[in-house]
Design goal:
The protein has eleven helices and twelve strands. The protein has 321 residues and is α/β, with parallel strands linked by helices. The model has no long low-confidence stretch (mean pLDDT 96).
Length: 321
């Protein structure tokens, strides 16, 4: 019997060309959905006949309700080895195996620097002016050398960002709830005495924390007010770590100079969201992990996950931690 597999949220239409799916020929019929389906009834209908689903990161939540409406589902593959939008307990109760793939920290670290540099040198404003025959130089950029970069989180990704900052001649502060002075020093950073200490001393603040109950809403109005008026905030981690309403207010009122954002609580970002139009926001549509090499890893290992599942020996199985 041929099984049916849906690959979700293939925005660029590259899922089937980023890996060799021929190993599944004759055993699995694969189709892709190019758009993000937010209507739950429509999504359940689209996936009702599928035994296998491949999800891209956390674009599509699989909660107990949706899983319960997919009686044929047997294997759910997520790109990456962590996906907070999948209810692993509900999946296990329904007999659904959940598997992951590897994911590189390099692409989001690189995008962090693209956003930070773009903000520091006002690239969006200057590029638009050049294209529109506007003023020839209208802004004055910030220097990086000698400035302080504050990193909220100094794990695999934050450490990569820290190394680049050192190459630019920046001073690096770091803070997270369990970070030690030695671990910070090993990454070329100084441990800030507190979150507030980091915010008040940094010219640029970049977030590299996992979303959890402890980090949700970590930066609210008091924290944004504590930042320097000329400072920029960069978030390529998870939107909910920053209180959205407080951030919009801070940007409108000039508490901070601007923000570089790649993550949003609702994705795709609604057309009328002010983050689309605020002049001191440099925003990208969650591109942190979107690179050719990462996609080859995601989809190549998704094929491996499916193949292993078909043999009765699933690999990279995710369990609730």
């Amino acid at each position: 019997m041929t099984l049916r597999c849906a690959v979700l949220d293939d925005y660029q239409g590259v899922a089937l060309t980023s890996a060799d799916w021929s190993a599944l020929d004759g055993r699995v019929e694969v189709r892709t959905l190019r758009e993000n389906v937010t209507d739950r009834d429509r999504l359940a209908s689209e996936l009702a006949d599928c035994e296998i689903v491949v999800a891209m990161r956390e674009r599509t939540p699989f909660d107990a309700d949706l899983l319960g409406r997919l009686p044929e589902l047997r294997l759910l593959v997520t790109t990456g080895m962590r996906n907070a939008s999948i209810d692993l307990t509900a999946a296990a109760a329904q007999g659904v195996t959940v598997c992951g793939t590897a994911s590189s920290a390099t692409p989001p670290a690189e995008l962090t620097w693209a956003l930070l540099l773009g903000l520091a040198r006002h690239l969006t404003v200057e590029s638009r002016a050049l294209r529109d025959n506007g003023p020839w130089q209208s802004t004055v950029g910030q220097d990086l050398a000698g400035r302080t970069l504050g990193l909220l989180g100094l794990g695999r990704l934050g450490s990569q960002v820290a190394r680049v900052a050192t190459a630019f001649g920046m001073d690096v502060l770091a803070w997270s709830q369990n970070l030690t002075a030695q671990r910070a020093a090993d990454a070329g950073a100084q441990l800030a005495s507190s979150k507030e200490d980091l915010l008040t001393r940094s010219d640029f603040v970049s977030i590299h924390l996992v979303l959890s109950d402890r980090t949700r809403g970590l930066l609210g109005a008091p924290e944004l007010r504590a930042m320097r008026p000329h400072a920029y905030l960069v978030n390529t981690s998870r939107a909910a770590i920053v209180d959205r309403d407080a951030l919009v207010h801070a940007l409108r009122e000039g508490w901070i100079a601007g923000a570089g954002l790649d993550v949003f609580e609702t994705e795709p970002l609604p057309a009328d969201d002010p983050l689309r139009t605020l002049p001191n926001v440099l925003a990208t549509p969650h591109l942190g992990y979107v690179t050719e090499r990462n996609y080859r890893t995601f989809y190549g290992e998704a094929v491996e996950d499916i193949t292993a599942f078909l043999t009765g020996e699933p690999v990279r199985v995710l369990t609730k931690t």
